[in-house]
Amino acid sequence: MLGPLRVLDGERDLTPGPAKHRALLAALLLRPARPVAVERLIDEVWDGRPPASAEPVLRVYVSALRKVVEGIRTVPGGYLLDVDPGRVDAHRFEHLVAEARRAGEAGRRAEAAEGLREALTLWRGPALADVESDTLRRAHAVRLEELRLTAVEERVELDLTLGRGARVVGELRALVAAHPLRERAWGQLIAALDQAGRRSEALGAYREARRLLVEELGLEPGEDLRAAHERVLTGSPAPRTVPNETPPDIADFTGREHILEWIRGSVPKAGGAPVHLVLHGPAGVGKSAVAVHAATALDLPDGRLYASLGTRTPEAVLEDLLRSVGCPEAAIPADLDGRVRLYRSTVGGRRLLVVLDDAADEAQVRPLLPTGPGCVTLVTSRSPLPGLEAARALELDVLDRDESVAMLAGVAGEHRVRAEPEAAARVAELCGGLPLALRIAGSRLARRPGWTLAHLAGRLGDERGRLDELSAGDLAVRGSLALGYRALSERQRLLLRRLGALSAPDVAPWVASALLGGPAEETLDALAGAGLLQARGLDPAGQERYGWHDLTRLYAAERLAEEEGPPAGVLAAVAPEILERARRARTLLLPAEPGSGLTLARTAEQITAPETALFRESARWLAAERGFLVATVADARRAGLDEVAWRLAFYLTPFFELGAHREDWRSTVEEGLRAVRRAGHRHGEALLLRSLADLHRVEGRLADAAETLRLALTLAETGEVARTRYRLGLVHLAQDRLPEAQACFVACLAAFSAAGDRRGRADALRALGGLRREPDLLSRSLEAYRELGDPRGEAAVSLDLAGLLLDARRLREARGRAEHALGLARRLGDRLPEATALVVLAGIALAEGGPDVAKQSARQALETFREHGDRGGAARATLALAEAALGLDEIDEAFDGLTRAMGEFDALGDGRGRAMAEKLAAEVRRRRGV
């Protein structure tokens, strides 16, 4: 399928001829050995426009395919093609790319480059080239093509690190010709030409790249491309690697303050002799946790190295450390002495923190010690390593009673520990002060809210039922999980440990597939069957979700660190899939956003049912993945994947705004800002500041919103200045600073029109029309949204027009506009816009003399606003409900509603809402004779 669809049996070509047969076969091949529902197949084969007889015709197509393709089976509700994914080129490609990336993460760069090269040979043209189904191409071909392009760039990057620049120049020239605006490819071409000694051509390539970017996008080259140019000009090597390899810290780390203070106090000043610290003690006492927690707080300028030693040889560890500090693979000597000399000379001028975890003996550690002034080495071992010269050792004992109880409270919940202090102390005593044992006990309590601490203490006190790990030290504590882990297949162990890179509470199968580089449903079910994962049912998008206990996640993270390395590598491998899915979902939520190029030129009525289903599916998918995506932003930022973190935070903004998920909005944009500022990406920072200002505005924090937007304006690139100023106009409008708001909107309208920004023009027309209360401007905005194929924008303007028509007492037209908006919101599954439409319809019903109908609409709207935590919407709905109550002569109810509404308007700083409520309150007082 990586090219025209072909079915080959040896030398025989069995590819079906009819287009519908090919589309059906492709739909099944894309999900090998997995059932596919009849409804989905019909949608994909007929591209969303099936005939009335689609189902019986589909059966005929299946029958015809069975004559040439073995393994098509009928299953409840659909069909399944029983084929090994390794025999399907698309799946084999993804598997080979994943394998190559794992080799690269392990430092085997030559092997990784060859693996990617093998994967890319599977391509014979555009994915699904002759499959006539836009639905299939949107869902699968775009992702495969992007993965192909990323794999090419990754393979070229590996070749460059291996000194093969001269070999890849021709390939890179073809790549930039096909994708002239891809800055990474241009940067690689410049580096390859420079590496090949063709300096003048490298400078010419930069000039050509800059010309294209300026002419096509109006943008100067990004920081990485400029840096590649600067290196050619100055003849300097690539920037020195600053590693940050320590695993993520434990969120509920408890105690050990005297040990942490000892470590902090041992750090030498710059230029001082290097310091080597050994944390030793029995297994399970928390040596690794202390080392990682301490390392996280130490800020040495040249970074942090991390190595899990175990039974590894010093030669193998040195190879990894040398790669981490930027040594090309070809430059690493084969013998131990050569590697030690190169390591010491490379790090001699750097001030590093090196964490050497789980050391066996002095001979294993000695070659790995950095010799640079001011360096710190943290070694963990069961032994004090007395023969390690110039090392200071400190023994970690079990936690004392107070520390144990504090740790138990951190895991199980402080309120439960405070409620049963004596039982908590007994549990801590039975755990023997071992941190891992305490974590197991706390996790059991956390996942069994009906248990008391006394009940758990009773279970642990019974020797026949006491967990083996609590009576036999760390090895026994880990026994049950380790035994279960060892019993898994290699593929199951691989997935479990890679899930340890994620902090999200649960995942869908697509995440697991990305982690494995292939289908993962059977592997997930096997892990659930083994009790290591739990199937938690279907989410709003119809996906089965799998969660795990926190102890299992921690165990998986430990296995990942020991067997593959820090979680950043796993996160980097799955990041393209996560970002692409989030980007596609954002595009459906916000069609024709500036720069997207989407101009569908159709009215909402012309948008087909399957397309509307895609809009709804996007919102449902985002709702289902909300917790995972929010956690991933933080995971990526903590792992140093700054671009992943800030881009994902930006992609999620419209979803959070649409669903009023304000805490998630705040946390992701704050994480994104930390990441983008660390990366020094001004344009990204401007986008996220704009998002933060939107959050401030909807929360009623108008002064903060205005200040944030002014800061964003200092960073915004040319194309974003008008959009940022447009938002400043919205803030001025909310502040009742109407002249300033109008000036912003007029200027933005001119800027958007001049730039050909059709969405920006639609937004500005709507804002200006609402401010001036001019139906003509709103009608032009409505037409612009329709031309963009944006039903959400169309619905919003329809409500604005309905409000103007209501004020003009043109009630029939007002109702038509409002009901049209309501229908669009319901088709799209947009609950908050639906509630807004119900508030407008309540006002129309009141004007028509139907206060009972108005009350029903307002009550429905209020329930939705409260459900989503939208205080401003709830205040408007409460005001409409009070007005309806007044129309029914329910004076006391109207008075109570107005009191609540005015309180909310005051809290939100909504002066216009407060004024409307005051006007209605005067009528209530008149009727009450007050």
Average of pLDDT:
85
Second-tier CATH architecture of the domain at 632-814? Alpha Horseshoe
Q: Can you tell me the CATH topology of the domain at 632-814?
A: Serine Threonine Protein Phosphatase 5, Tetratricopeptide repeat
- Give the proportion of residues in helices: 55-70%
Number of helices: 43
pLDDT < 50 runs, ≥5 residues:
463-478, 594-607
Q: Structural class of the secondary structure composition?
A: mainly alpha
Radius of gyration using CA atoms only = 31 Å
How far apart, in Å, are the first and last alpha carbons? 79 Å
Strand order of the largest sheet: 7-8-9-6-10
DSSP strand content: 5-15%
| Main β sheet profile | 5 strands, parallel
Write up what this structure looks like:
With 930 residues, the chain is mainly alpha-helical. Among the domains are: 257-395, Rossmann fold (3-Layer(aba) Sandwich); 401-477, no CATH class; 481-565, Arc Repressor Mutant, subunit A (Orthogonal Bundle), CATH 1.10.10; 632-814, Alpha Horseshoe (Serine Threonine Protein Phosphatase 5, Tetratricopeptide repeat), CATH 1.25.40; 830-928, Alpha Horseshoe (Serine Threonine Protein Phosphatase 5, Tetratricopeptide repeat). Helices cover 65% and strands 6% of the residues. It has 43 helices and 13 strands. Strands 7-8-9-6-10 form a 5-stranded parallel beta sheet, with helices on both faces. It has a 3-stranded antiparallel beta sheet with strand order 3-5-4. It is globular and about 95 Å long. Residues 463-478 and 594-607 have low confidence and may be disordered. One of its GO terms (molecular function) is ADP binding. This is DNA-binding SARP family transcriptional activator. Residues 1-83 bind DNA. InterPro entries: AfsR-DnrI-RedD_regulator (IPR051677), Apaf_helical (IPR042197), BTAD (IPR005158), OmpR/PhoB-type_DNA-bd (IPR001867), P-loop_NTPase (IPR027417), Sig_transdc_resp-reg_C-effctor (IPR016032), TPR-like_helical_dom_sf (IPR011990), TPR_rpt (IPR019734). Residues 1-83 form the OmpR/PhoB-type domain.
